[in-house]
Specification:
Blueprint: E1 11-13, E2 19-23, E3 26-30, E4 42-46, E5 50-53, H1 59-67, H2 79-88, H3 111-120, H4 128-136, E6 189-195, E7 218-221, E8 237-240, E9 249-251, E10 254-255
Parallel strand pairs: 6-9
Antiparallel strand pairs: 1-2, 2-5, 3-4, 5-10, 6-7, 7-8
């Protein structure tokens, strides 16, 4: 029987109880002229649709991963990630004061932990291009909601008392991206699958699918509660080593093209 593609922003709940939004295939202009590492602006084709978490992964959802043996199940981890878990005897994420509310985004996790949780969800981390497409869309918005900055739509340094904010359906809805994804700007930086490399973005080069190495840097997107307005732009890029656990880095998950 013929199937109908969901409309952009259609919501569904996966089998772990996490709400996701539908992101269609398409093309957009990736990058900006604001900083050197965002240049050159170049067209990128997103060939396949996907489902993306509505919000960054919450403490509540990550706790289920921990409780269901996430840190004891090698199949969820990359080779280097599992070596790290075993050598360092890691059994839980790193908690930070005032950041443990069940509905706050999970921070204190590194790239390996984010990737392992995604596999537990039968998903993966978004590529850098997928993340930016979900934030900017075909209109190539400067911010997820449009081209004019509005501090009421975002959690950045100076406007929420120095901590992350709870997330969920209907919270900061005015800051939603074109497909309805929430908190893609501000609140927490988000780990993506991609290795930090110069533009133009080429999906088939060495930036996707690597595990780890002494000089590997993994991309973080979206700004955070501890960063300023410029980092809240949809094109802004940051990076860190895959072992680094801090109180401003979270993530969200990509799922397959059908629920």
């Amino acid at each position: 029987l013929p199937t109908t593609e969901p409309a952009p922003g259609t919501r569904m709940t996966d089998d772990k109880g996490v709400e996701m939004v539908y992101v269609p295939a398409g093309k957009f202009l990736m990058g900006s002229n604001e900083t050197a590492d965002e240049q050159p602006i170049h067209e990128v084709q997103i060939a396949h649709p996907f489902w993306l978490d509505l919000t960054p992964v919450t403490n509540q959802s990550y706790a289920r991963f921990v409780d269901e043996g996430g840190y004891q199940t090698a199949d969820f981890w990359t080779k280097s990630g599992w070596q790290w878990v075993q050598q360092e005897k890691i059994t839980t994420p790193l908690d930070h004061d005032n950041f443990t509310n069940p509905q706050q985004p999970r921070v204190g996790i590194n790239w390996f932990e984010a990737s392992a949780y995604a596999r537990w969800r039968s998903g993966r981390l978004p590529t850098e291009a997928e993340w930016e497409w979900a934030a900017r869309g075909p209109e190539n918005r400067i911010y997820p909601w449009g081209s004019t900055f509005d501090a009421e739509r975002v959690v950045i340094s100076g406007n929420l008392g120095g901590k992350i904010a709870a997330v969920g359906s209907g919270i900061r809805a005015s800051g939603a991206s074109w497909i309805g994804a929430l908190d893609m700007s501000g609140n927490v930086l988000e780990w993506v699958n991609s290795i930090y490399q110069p533009y133009p973005y080429l999906a088939d080069d060495v930036r996707e699918g690597l595990d780890s190495g002494p000089d590997i840097k993994c991309v973080l997107r979206g700004g955070s509660w501890s960063l300023y307005q410029d980092y809240a732009r949809s094109a802004s890029r940051d990076y860190s080593g895959p072992f680094y656990r801090v109180g401003r880095s979270g993530f969200r998950v990509v799922g397959p093209p059908s629920p």
